[in-house]
Amino acid sequence: MKPLTNVLLSNILVRLLSFCVLVFLARFAYVVTVKGQSCDSIDFCFSSVFQDLMTEGVLSTNSSSLCIETLAAEEVIALRGIGVVKSIGISSKKLSSEGVRYGKSLNQPFKNLTFDFEFSSTSGLDQTLNPVQFALEVSRTLKPGGFFVVHTKSVNDEYSLRSLLELFDTFTLIKLREMDGLDSLPVREIILRKENVTLLKIKTANKCSVPSYKQELIRKAEPLIKQEPLKSWITLKRNIKNVKYLSTMVDISFKNRYVYIDVGARSYGSSIGSWFKKQYPKQEKPFEIYAVEADSAFYDEYKTKKGVKLLPYAAWIRNETLFFEISRDPSRKNEERGRGMGRIQAVQSSSNFMGDLNKIHGFDFAMWLKNTVVEKDYVVVKMDVEGTEFHLIPRLIESGAICLIDEIFLECHYNRWQKCCPGKRSPKYQKTYAQCLELFTSLRKHGVLVHQWW
Ligand SMILES: *[C@@H]1O[C@H](CO)[C@@H](O)[C@H](O)[C@H]1NC(C)=O
Ligand SMILES: *[C@@H]1O[C@H](CO)[C@@H](O)[C@H](O)[C@H]1NC(C)=O
Ligand SMILES: *[C@@H]1O[C@H](CO)[C@@H](O)[C@H](O)[C@H]1NC(C)=O
Ligand SMILES: *[C@@H]1O[C@H](CO)[C@@H](O)[C@H](O)[C@H]1NC(C)=O
């Protein structure tokens, strides 16, 4: 999904606002109605769960029902026990319980539009390696108007709820409540209804909303450094320890792909190897890695790095040829290993530029992003582009591509105090610290979780 919204989504957003209240109330209600009774046998628990669903009209005795990845046959037995006779379970483990057949959740052995009701316990959607395909199969075999009820332990924040709802984008969220699971860890029950029509998706030209949960995450993030640091090379580097990574605040299980894009990657070791691979909390997800680097001096090294896709271009605001300053003057060669200073200069402005100029290809990074990832993907970006951020960030915002980024680590280049010569500012960059702060603030205002990179 490109920056789109649809009828469903706005519906969902309204509901999201009441997430906390809803969960609280529902939990309370559940404790009163179900926990009040003894719930010591598994069958009894599922029975009361299904009984409640029946009372709410989600399930009826004539519903054709499917339990996905049922470990033993408890759910099926419980359903049949309360009179839902047309109930069946599938399991990808070879079990021979009555009412359960062998079948994969990612390739359900049923025709389209077979069921009125599908149920996934915490051994279903929570455990799958491919939530997108899981959701497609539920959507395929469920009849319009039918219900999908999922129990999950992975929805503990609004981000993960929204990720889950994005998987089921032709469904409406009916209800969400919390209950105690078998191991007394909280379980969320989410009730979704499949809509009859594929709801109209309206493109709201390049705009994306800033849902309240994003603002909440940004409030929880480390504060921006308001004062210009005297020794930025120390202050900013140390600040990385304060960073509140998104993946330490929310559950990222229900995403499609996991993507890391290093814009201005320089050498492999400078940030991909030393930081992203080692320090970024990944919740054990496999990340695809893109390295965007315009300086060919680094290319050989990437040939041997499997799992890193090199884009040998400069991230820019359109496709065009640029001139690239490669400051590889011998005196500086060893100073910042692999984190050299490359600055790109558009062709027009290069006439009075004195330096080692290389012609390189710039590409429209925002467009590339829109063609490469979707909102269902989890996307982390590091951007260190020697001043070009003042072109790239506005372009990302204006094109809506910014909404595709979950978290961004941004180095902002300004006329900082120099290490070499106290009291002197770097002549390399025109922008001031205040302008950088403005860039960060505006990103956070747009709902983007941005961190100050050094
Ligand atoms: C299922 O049963 C309910 C009453 O229990 C009835 O209202 C409904 O029409 C039935 N649905 C079908 C598809 O037979
Ligand atoms: C079943 O549904 C899928 C998509 O959900 C569709 O691609 C396929 O053509 C359908 N098959 C039949 C036989 O209608
Ligand atoms: C779905 O829509 C079609 C066409 O609008 C209609 O014929 C059908 O009865 C609807 N089905 C349900 C379950 O609402
Ligand atoms: C820019 O370049 C990319 C990659 O070569 C290409 O896919 C895209 O269509 C180009 N865009 C424009 C507007 O020319």
From TrEMBL:
Keywords: Membrane, Transmembrane, Transmembrane helix. Residues 225-318, 359-454 form the DUF7870 domain. It comes from the Eukaryota. It holds the Pfam family DUF7870. The chain crosses the membrane at residues 12-32. Gene3D superfamilies: Vaccinia Virus protein VP39. InterPro entries: DUF7870, SAM-dependent_MTases_sf. PANTHER family: METHYLTRANSFERASE (PTHR44843), METHYLTRANSFERASE FKBM DOMAIN-CONTAINING PROTEIN (PTHR44843:SF13). This is DUF7870 domain-containing protein. It comes from Handroanthus impetiginosus. The lineage of its organism: Eukaryota, Viridiplantae, Streptophyta, Embryophyta, Tracheophyta.
